[in-house]
From TrEMBL:
Domain (Sigma-54 factor interaction) ranges: 13-242
Keyword annotations of the record: ATP-binding, DNA-binding, Nucleotide-binding, Transcription, Transcription regulation
InterPro entries the record matches: AAA+_ATPase, AAA_lid_NorR, Homeodomain-like_sf, HTH_Fis, P-loop_NTPase, Sigma_54_int, Sigma_54_int_dom_ATP-bd_1, Sigma_54_int_dom_ATP-bd_2
Stated name of the protein: Sigma-54-dependent Fis family transcriptional regulator
SMART domains: AAA
Length: 421
């Protein structure tokens, strides 16, 4: 059996915390069996490595490994994605399609964000877990598959069950073995280690000398709560590496990269920090304005096209007026779902399914918006920054961040994955 240290090296996992080691040990022990595993832990703790470890140490390692992000697939199509569909099962089903459970026969499926599965899909999944049987959407012919399921969630599943959002029987089936990855704040000794690793990675990436924390800054780093866990720590290391001229990082500098660290140990620092955060607020507002302008520009483009193509000038006039009301009226900052495509700055590559299979059928998720490239690139950077800030401000709570940004949770989710935030 491979030992924990070897696995860490192979999968680039940093840290020596006993709770982390125990979690990895569990993954190694359970890998050769077909037992279902539920990986739990806060956002950004490193859950995604576990199913990969399990698959690669199992007898299924030469078969397919498919990672499906359940939270990012629209409810209306998730059954068809997972279980496939028959030709004619619904409008647009022009041919029979195999789902991931069929394609991954003999292999492993990682159901990430499993707590987001709709209840109807949960019923189908339960059946697969019980006897390997499933039906394609629109078919009455029972099919069989042999798939090992590893799931992950950062939700409190007991709460979800209480609220009727998740089936209790499915929860017990999925979590035959539960592997919990501890939050960063409970792995204090790993924090500086991880920071140094990321600092060294980014110094290579950006071809700059490595940043180094002053002693007091190390203490601050270890005292901070890290609501976004390792993902947040990595972002902080990257931001400081790129933005700070001095390679020696003082507590004051570090503090300005840690949202809500104000109540930490250094009063003088807090005062200093106010100025900087005022400045960054201003910048955020500017970005927000830029986004709204972008959306408005899209509206205008659309309208111009319509003007060019329409001879019904009265109708256009009306639309024009309503658009102007919309732009200058009072709904500026609360753009909702309907405008989501307008802030979709890049034609999304499908980031929901990680690898190994080409989803066999037609490209269903083609978002029409096409925007010139340079424009897209600079705005994309701003978008990433805006999203990061909003997530930080809302302590990683996507719902709150999405509503602050005026986009749907799903869109935000897609963007987090797309930009690997
Ligand atoms: N121990 C570790 N050593 C090095 N990098 C790590 C470690 N744990 C996590 N990371 C990195 O931190 C980032 C976040 O990890 P991951 O994507 O697995 O989070 P998660 O637990 O799936 O979070 P979420 O619930 O938000 O999806 C990844 O880039 C991952 O490579
Ligand atoms: Mg994840």
């Amino acid at each position: 059996m491979e030992n924990v240290q070897a696995i860490k090296q192979r999968f680039g996992i940093i840290g020596n915390d006993p709770k982390l080691n125990r979690a990895l040990e569990k993954a190694i022990q359970v890998a050769p069996t077909d037992i279902s595993v539920l990986v739990t832990g806060e956002s950004g703790v490193g859950k995604e490595a576990v199913p990969k470890i399990i698959h690669s140490l199992s007898h299924r390692k030469h078969a397919k490994y498919i990672a499906v992000n359940c939270g990012a697939i629209p409810e209306g199509t998730i059954d068809s994605e997972l279980f496939g569909h028959e030709k004619g099962a619904f409008t647009g089903a022009t041919q029979t399609r195999s789902g991931y459970f069929e394609v991954a026969d003999g292999g492993t499926i990682f159901l990430d964000e499993v707590g987001e599965l709709p209840l109807t899909t949960q019923v189908r999944l339960l059946r697969i877990l019980e006897n390997g049987e499933f039906l394609k959407v629109g078919s009455s012919q029972v099919q069989k598959t042999n798939v090992r399921i590893v799931a992950a969630t950062n939700l409190n599943m007991i709460e979800a069950i209480k609220k009727g959002k998740f089936r209790e029987d499915l929860y017990y089936r999925l979590s035959t073995v539960e592997i919990n990855i501890p939050p960063l704040r409970d792995r204090k000794d790993d924090i500086h280690l991880l920071f140094r690793k990321f600092a060294s990675d980014f110094s290579q990436k950006y071809k700059m000398p490595t940043i180094r924390l002053e002693d007091n800054a190390v203490q601050m780093l270890e005292k901070y709560r890290w609501p976004g866990n390792i993902r947040q720590l990595r972002n902080v290391a990257e931001q400081i590496s790129v933005l700070e001229e001095s390679r020696s990082v003082s507590p004051m500098t570090l503090n300005s990269y840690l949202p809500n660290a104000g109540d930490s140990n250094l009063p003088a620092v807090v005062e200093q920090n106010t100025r900087k955060s005022d400045f960054s607020n201003e910048r955020e507002i500017l970005y927000k304005v830029l986004f709204d302008m972008k959306a408005d520009l899209n509206d205008l483009k659309k309208l111009t096209l319509e003007l060019l193509h329409s001879d019904d000038s009265e109708k256009v006039q009306e639309e024009n007026e309503s658009l102007i009301r919309k732009i200058y009226g009072n709904e500026g900052s609360s753009r909702k779902e309907e405008n989501d495509t307008a802030v979709e700055l890049l034609p999304p590559h499908d980031s929901r399914v990680e690898k190994t299979v080409e989803p066999p059928q037609e490209d269903k998720y083609h978002f029409a918006e096409e925007i010139e490239e340079e424009e897209t690139l600079s705005l994309q950077e701003k978008e990433i920054e805006l999203i990061k800030k909003s997530l930080e401000r809302n302590r990683g709570k996507r719902k709150a961040a999405a509503s602050e940004l005026g986009i749907s949770e799903r869109t935000l989710y897609r963007k987090i994955k797309q930009y690997d935030l």
